[in-house]
Write the C-alpha cells for this entry.
Amino acid sequence: MTDFMSLPDLALRTYGGAVVAANDESFAEREALIRPGPPAFQTHTFGAKGQVYDGWETRRRREPGHDWAVVRLGLPGVIKGVVVDTAWFKGNYPPYASVEACAMDGWPSPDEIAASAEWVEIVSRSSLKGDAVHLFEVSDPRRFTHVRLNIFPDGGVARLRVHGQVVPDPAFLHGLTVDLAALENGAVVVACSDEFYSSPNNVIAPGLARNQSEGWETARRRDGGNDWLVVALAGRGTVAVAELDTGNLIFNAPSSASIRGIDATEAALDDDQAWFPLLDRTRLQPDTRHRFRLDGERRMTHARLDIFPDGGMARLRLLGTLTG
C-alpha cells in the first residue's frame, strides 16, 4: 500500500470537509464523495433517477466539456496523495480524471472560489477503470484548502480521499489555550503498539466518536504487556489538562492509563529516561469522559499514552499552550 494512505484524509466529512460546489449531480448527490467508510451498494434499488448509488454521478453529457466538484478540506494541509474510488460504477464511470488544488483565506463562498481561486494541478489527467480504487501520489509541498475533482467527460465516482499532513492556520494557535494533541491543529500519531481494529489517529480526530470504530481499539493482549501510542503535538508547549474519553467502549475499555511527555528537541524519542510523567497510572471507567488537571509546566513536543492492558480509547485531548 502506498505510504500516504496512513496519513489523515483531509477531506473527510467527519473532519469538517464539505463538497461546496459541483456543476452537475443529476443521478447521485455530490456529498457522498467524502462520506466516511467504504461505498455501499444494493442491487435493484431504483428511485426516480435510476439505480441508487453511494457516490457522485452526473448525467450523460451531450455537449463538449467535463464535469467537476469542489471540496473544501476540513483539515487544510500539504497533500501527499489522492484516492479516486469508482466502486460499483461499472458501466457509468468516467474514463479519465484529474485533481486541482488551491489555497484561499477565510471561508469563501462557491462564487468567490469560482471568481478568484488559483488552481494548481496536483494530479494530471489520468485513466480510470470501473469499480476500482486509483491511488495518485502528490509531490507539491504547498498548503492547500480546497481541491477540485474533474471527470472526463461525465459519470460516477464513489469516493474522493485526500491524504496529507495537516497544516493549521497559526493565527488560531499562538497565545491561546488549545488542544495540542488535536489532528486539526497539526498533531499526528507517530508510533503505536497495535491498530488491529481501527487507526490510532482516530483518537485525536475532531468531535466525539459516534461508535467504537471512530476511536482507537487494539486486539486482546495475551503476553502480559500493554498497548500504547505516541503523539507528535501541534508544537512545543506545556500541557495543563488531559482528557481521556472511553465513550462507546463498554466491555473493551482499558482498566487504567498513564501519560508521559518528552521534549524531542533535547532528547531522542527512544531515550526512555527522558520521558517524564504527566499523569500517573490512573483507573478508568468504561464509556466515560475523564478530565484531569495537570501540574505540567515542562515543555514537551510528544506525548505517550499507555493503556493497561489493552482495549480502546475514543479520544485523547491535551489542552495547553505553545511556547514557540
Summary: The CA atoms of residues 13 and 35 lie 6 Å apart. Residues 3-166 form a domain with the Jelly Rolls fold (CATH 2.60.120.260).
